[in-house]
C-alpha cells in the first residue's frame, strides 16, 4: 500500500476537488484585487488620450488579467495548499487518513497530481495567451494608449546603436525595408560619449540607407537651443533593418518556438544570448513551480492541531514557498548578468527546493 500513491479513488477525487476549488478561489481573489489597484494607477493615462473611454479601460483589463493570472498562479497554489491542509488538519481528517495507513506522500499525491495539471494548463496559457497579451499591451503603452499599428510585427521601447550615437523608438512596426518607427529620439554623441544634439520626430522610415526623420525638432546641448528644422532629416546611415530585428527581441512577448528562432539568429550574428536562453528555460521551469507548492506547504498539514503549532506550521510552509520565489527571481537575474549558466539559473531553484521540501516532509512525517 505504501507504493500505491492513490489507494482510494474516492479520497483522491475528494482531495483534488477541494484543492482545485481553493486554487481558483485564491487566484480570483488575488487577480481581482491586484487588477483594481493596477487599473486605478493606469486609468488616468488611458483616458488622457483623446477619444479613449470606458471601452479602452476594459481593453486594458483584458490584456492585463492574463499577465496577473500567469504571475500569481503559483502563489495561489501555495496559499491553497496551506488552506487545504490546515483545514484538513484542523478537522482531524489528516489523522483519520494516517490512521487508515496512508503515508504523508499518499495524502499529498492528489494535490501533487492536481498541481501538475495546473502547471500544464499554465504553460499552454502562457504560450497561447500571455505572450500575445504582453506584446499588445507593451505596444499600446508605447503609443500612450493610442491606436496600435495593424502590422503583425510590433516592438516597443527599442534602443539601437549607430556608432557612438543612439537611436530610440517608442514603437517599431513592420519588418524589413517597410519598418516604421514612432516617437523617435536620436542622440548624437561625441568621442567622450557626451550628448551634443538631440533630434526628436513623430516618425521615421527606412531610406536605404539611413532613416528619414519626419519634421524633426532639434535640441542643441551646448547652446540649450530648441528649434524645428522645417524639413525631413536623414540619420543613422549605418543602421540596417536587420539590426532592429536583432535588438528588439522580447522574451516575454514570444512563445518558445519564436524565441528559439530569435536566439538562433542572435547567436549567428555573434550577439550574447545568455539572458534570452535563461528566459527560454524559465518558460518551462516557471509553470512547473506549481508542482513544488504542495510539497513546500505540506508542513502545514501535519502535526497535532490541538498542540497549538498549526499556525506556526502554516507560517513555515508559507515562508518556504515565498523563499522559493525570491531565490528563483534572484537566480534568473544572476543568469541575465552572466553569473550563472542559463540552464542553471532557470532550474537550480526548482531542484533545490524540491530536495528541501522532500527533506522536510521525510524528516518530520515519514
Automatic annotation (TrEMBL):
Protein name stated in the entry = LPS export ABC transporter permease LptG
Q: Which residues cross the membrane?
A: 12-37, 68-86, 107-125, 310-327, 339-362
One GO cellular component term noted in the UniProt record for this chain: ATP-binding cassette (ABC) transporter complex
**Predominant subcellular localization, coarse grouping:** membrane
**What's the encoding gene here?**
lptG
User: Would the keyword Cell membrane be found if you checked this record's keyword annotation?
Assistant: yes
In its UniProt record, which GO terms are filed under biological process?
Answer: lipopolysaccharide transport; transmembrane transport
| UniProt keyword list | Cell membrane, Membrane, Transmembrane, Transmembrane helix
Which NCBIfam families does this entry report, sorted A to Z? Answer: LptG_lptG (TIGR04408)
Q: Where in the cell is it found?
A: Cell membrane
Q: Which residues form a coiled coil?
A: none
Query: What's its membrane topology?
Result: Multi-pass membrane protein
Cited Pfam families: LptF_LptG (PF03739)
Amino acid at each position: 500500500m505504501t507504493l500505491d500513491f492513490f489507494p482510494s479513488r474516492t479520497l483522491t477525487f475528494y482531495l483534488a476537488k477541494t484543492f482545485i476549488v481553493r486554487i481558483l478561489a485564491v487566484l480570483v481573489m488575488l487577480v481581482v484585487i491586484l487588477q483594481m489597484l493596477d487599473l486605478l494607477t493606469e486609468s488616468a493615462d488611458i483616458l488622457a488620450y483623446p477619444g479613449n473611454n470606458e471601452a479602452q479601460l476594459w481593453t486594458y483589463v483584458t490584456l492585463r488579467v492574463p499577465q496577473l493570472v500567469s504571475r500569481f498562479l503559483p502563489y495561489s497554489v501555495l496559499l491553497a495548499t496551506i488552506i487545504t491542509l490546515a483545514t484538513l488538519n484542523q478537522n482531524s481528517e489528516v489523522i483519520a487518513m494516517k490512521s487508515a495507513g496512508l503515508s504523508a506522500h499518499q495524502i499529498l499525491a492528489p494535490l501533487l497530481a492536481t498541481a501538475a495539471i495546473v502547471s500544464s494548463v499554465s504553460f499552454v496559457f502562457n504560450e497561447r495567451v500571455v505572450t500575445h497579451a504582453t506584446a499588445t499591451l507593451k505596444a499600446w503603452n508605447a503609443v500612450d494608449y493610442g491606436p496600435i499599428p495593424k502590422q503583425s510585427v510590433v516592438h516597443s521601447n527599442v534602443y539601437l546603436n549607430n556608432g557612438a550615437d543612439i537611436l530610440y523608438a517608442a514603437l517599431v512596426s513592420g519588418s524589413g525595408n517597410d519598418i516604421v518607427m514612432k516617437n523617435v529620439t536620436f542622440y548624437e554623441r561625441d568621442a567622450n560619449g557626451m550628448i551634443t544634439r538631440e533630434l526628436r520626430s513623430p516618425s521615421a522610415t527606412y531610406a536605404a540607407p539611413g532613416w528619414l526623420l519626419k519634421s524633426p525638432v532639434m535640441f542643441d546641448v551646448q547652446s540649450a537651443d530648441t528649434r524645428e528644422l522645417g524639413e525631413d532629416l536623414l540619420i543613422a546611415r549605418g543602421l540596417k533593418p536587420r539590426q532592429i530585428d536583432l535588438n528588439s527581441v522580447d522574451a516575454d512577448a514570444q512563445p518558445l518556438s519564436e524565441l528559439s528562432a530569435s536566439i538562433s539568429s542572435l547567436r549567428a550574428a555573434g550577439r550574447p544570448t545568455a539572458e534570452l536562453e535563461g528566459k527560454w528555460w524559465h518558460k518551462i521551469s516557471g509553470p512547473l513551480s506549481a508542482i513544488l507548492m504542495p510539497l513546500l506547504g505540506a508542513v502545514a498539514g501535519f502535526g497535532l492541531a490541538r498542540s497549538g503549532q498549526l499556525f506556526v506550521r502554516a507560517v513555515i510552509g508559507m515562508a518556504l514557498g515565498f523563499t522559493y520565489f525570491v531565490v528563483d527571481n534572484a537566480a534568473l537575474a544572476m543568469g541575465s548578468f552572466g553569473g550563472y549558466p542559463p540552464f542553471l539559473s532557470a532550474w537550480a531553484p526548482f531542484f533545490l527546493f524540491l530536495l528541501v521540501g522532500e527533506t522536510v516532509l521525510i524528516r518530520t512525517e515519514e
